[in-house]
Amino acid sequence: MTSRLEVPKELLARYATSAPRYTSYPTAVDWEKDPAKAFQPASYADRLSTAAEERSDEPISLYTHVPYCAELCLFCGCNVQISRSDERRERYLKAVDDELTFLESTGIHRRPVQQFHWGGGTPTSLTLTQLERLFTSIMSRFKFTKGAEVSIEVDPRVTTHEQVELLCKLGFGRISMGIQDFQPDVQKAIKRVQSEEQTRSLIAASRAAGMSSVNVDLIYGLPHQTRASFRETVEKTIDIRPERVALFHYAHVPWMKSHQNAMDSEAMPGAEEKLDIFADSIAAFSQAGYVYLGLDHFALPGDELSLAAENGSLHRNFMGYTTQRGREMVSIGVSSIGEVDGTYVQNIANEPEYVALTEERGYATYRGHTMSATDKLRRDVILELMCNGRIDKLRIQRDHGIDFDETFALELQELEPIAADGLVKLEADLIQLTDIGQVLMRNVAVPFDRYMRERKARGDGTQGTFSKTL
Ligand SMILES: C[S@@+](CC[C@H](N)C(=O)[O-])C[C@H]1O[C@@H](n2cnc3c(N)ncnc32)[C@H](O)[C@@H]1O
Ligand code: SF4
């Protein structure tokens, strides 16, 4: 990546459109809606049993969602519940236990777990006892492999050093935490006041306790951020030197998250300034020795994500970029999304309903999508682009038994003006993102999205569905 991205303003205006982030393909809004063809939640147990029997030795990923946070950050787009009630957490933990018992009954727990992620909300909003009880309950059912990646998301404002020490004792080796921005005026505007000391102290405690990898999240596009102010946030982050950095573009989706309206949108940087902020940040992290993995992630060279990027095995799913390509993912907890036996499945997002359903029948799956061969082909192409910055046509042809240029004739035609704008290079056997294409990779992926094409043909806008690409 060059240190400066020079993008004509006119180009910027055209590409600052709304597009999916492709943590799944098809994206959840495009999952089959026709009730006759749609995934039936009652078949989830069969899917799990098939996955357990047919691929008994293949490792899986496991995800557990703990939705609670003490306070709501105004920018937050995650599935969160704002509560300090211990009773509510206890009820939820019991429901998760019911879900675990259900999973055990399908035999899926016999598959080795290669990756475990505990996400939220803020899992460390649980007490020490609750954290230990929940994790022990998971460990007593599932077998983790020896080198399993075990990670957790925490909020430095509520996470204690005792919690981090306990997590390390339980086997956690990776910790991820939000910073968002170090500037006090930005923090005030997003209602997330977190001192630099809080962040530094938790990272030091994590390292001292034995966490081998620290990830921090930053967001650009928030009120009062400027090029100069965000440069300071980046410099402080580089000084802390986490193994991984996620630099998210603020997803403004007030039609789904109405609390985002409480922020002053007039004070948010415009598309042009955001591009400058992003380009400056890429340059600063690169100069500091970080590898740019694409879209919104950086990692130090020895980190597994960088190694995966180097050998082309980077993957992307609901957790963002991961090293586990092609893994089935069993997800536990309210609103969580998994992928089992070629099918995406999602648990209900309403907490009381999640609790009631797991109590009644053990699972709270309420929708899903079984991928067709075409979905799998297009997903492979989009993932390849999002993860490796390129599409190796010959590899896709080999793996899916197609003629690339023939199958994607229309898409290749649509990529021509995008190539003329300098986002992508079209070669005989290769489609390769350029530097500016790395930033706008969602725009390059969209032509391969059959559902977006249908959406356009129906006259359905993307506005009000997906966040902006810039
Ligand atoms: C689920 S949160 C968990 C982290 C933890 N609760 C905390 O806040 O420190 C993971 C990350 O998602 C990112 N995030 C949340 N809402 C976002 C939004 N609207 N746009 C972009 N990133 C967002 C934030 O960077 C946050 O740290
Ligand atoms: S950003 Fe983190 S702490 Fe803030 S509301 Fe979202 S999940 Fe909770």
Task: Quickly describe the structure.
The chain is 41% helix and 20% strand.
Would you mind describing this structure in some detail?
- The two termini are 18 Å apart.
- The radius of gyration is 22 Å and the shape is globular.
- A hairpin with a 2-residue loop joins strand 14 and strand 15 (343-347).
- 41% of the residues lie in helices and 20% in strands.
- The protein is α/β, with parallel strands linked by helices.
How are the SSEs placed, and which strands pair?
Elements: H1 9-15, H2 44-54, E1 60-66, E2 68-69, E3 81-82, H3 86-106, E4 113-120, H4 128-141, E5 144-154, H5 161-170, E6 174-180, H6 184-189, H7 196-209, E7 213-220, H8 227-240, E8 244-249, H9 271-287, E9 291-294, E10 297-299, H10 304-310, E11 315-317, E12 320-322, E13 328-332, E14 337-340, E15 343-347, H11 351-361, E16 365-370, H12 373-388, E17 390-392, H13 393-400, H14 404-407, H15 409-420, E18 424-426, E19 430-433, H16 435-439, H17 441-445, H18 450-458
Parallel strand pairs: 1-4, 1-13, 2-3, 4-5, 5-6, 6-7, 7-8
Antiparallel strand pairs: 8-10, 9-10, 11-12, 14-15, 15-16, 17-19, 18-19
Helix pairs in contact: 3-4, 3-11, 4-5, 5-7, 8-9
This protein binds S-adenosylmethionine and iron/sulfur cluster.
